[in-house]
Amino acid sequence: MSMSSTMSSPRRAPQQERGERRVAQLLDAAASLLAEVGYDAATMTEIADRANASIGTVYQYFPNKPAIVLALRSQYVAEMEERWAHLNEETVAEMSAEQIAHRFVELTTDFVEEHPAYFAILDAPVKYKRSQEARNRLRERIAKVFRSKKPAISQEVAFRMANVALGIIKSMNKLYAETNSKEREELVKEYKVALAAYLNSRLAPFHKDRMQK
């Protein structure tokens, strides 16, 4: 191996790797606690206990509870964006509008079920604002999916459709959080029907006058 190739991919220092593992442990512990007791009842001391860490270690990485929630929120956003990234023109090529609608809803519900702290983090009184660039990136990806299914749609219309589709999905969050598992199944079915109806109406055979309204 040449010296140049060795230098181009430096290994992280053991201390840095330990620090990253410790942060991951603290965030996992915080997520577990938040899922059980909610934001208000969770304490830094309990987070330390769950992570088998000293309270000093927690404060070494996070100055307060809001900082932990912000870190979790950023982590969840990154994970969600990665999931949406797999939904592209190729993966939807053989999908109907109904199937696309179902997949959109399931991307959210699957994530929520795998991350029990999701709603506690979402409802925490902590200011979190994604950059406009990040928000647009997701909408542009969805708009591209819509245009792949119906090329006659303009970029402007497709972007607007992406906003509406995401709005429908986001409106499910509060109801989903407030219902039991059995009712959640029925709720998800209703949202799939609603989103499928919207996408069917917009991805139906192109009518210029209709799309410009």
Automatic annotation (TrEMBL):
<dbReference type="GO" id="GO:0003700">
    <property type="term" value="F:DNA-binding transcription factor activity"/>
</dbReference>
<dbReference type="InterPro" id="IPR023772">
    <property type="entry name" value="DNA-bd_HTH_TetR-type_CS"/>
</dbReference>
<feature type="DNA-binding region" description="H-T-H motif">
    <location>
        <begin position="43"/>
        <end position="62"/>
    </location>
</feature>
<dbReference type="GO" id="GO:0000976">
    <property type="term" value="F:transcription cis-regulatory region binding"/>
</dbReference>
<dbReference type="InterPro" id="IPR050109">
    <property type="entry name" value="HTH-type_TetR-like_transc_reg"/>
</dbReference>
<dbReference type="InterPro" id="IPR001647">
    <property type="entry name" value="HTH_TetR"/>
</dbReference>
<dbReference type="Pfam" id="PF17918">
    <property type="entry name" value="TetR_C_15"/>
</dbReference>
<dbReference type="InterPro" id="IPR009057">
    <property type="entry name" value="Homeodomain-like_sf"/>
</dbReference>
<protein>
    <submittedName>
        <fullName>AcrR family transcriptional regulator</fullName>
    </submittedName>
</protein>
<feature type="region of interest" description="Disordered">
    <location>
        <begin position="1"/>
        <end position="20"/>
    </location>
</feature>
<feature type="domain" description="HTH tetR-type">
    <location>
        <begin position="20"/>
        <end position="80"/>
    </location>
</feature>
<dbReference type="InterPro" id="IPR041669">
    <property type="entry name" value="TetR_C_15"/>
</dbReference>
<keyword id="KW-0238">DNA-binding</keyword>
<dbReference type="Pfam" id="PF00440">
    <property type="entry name" value="TetR_N"/>
</dbReference>
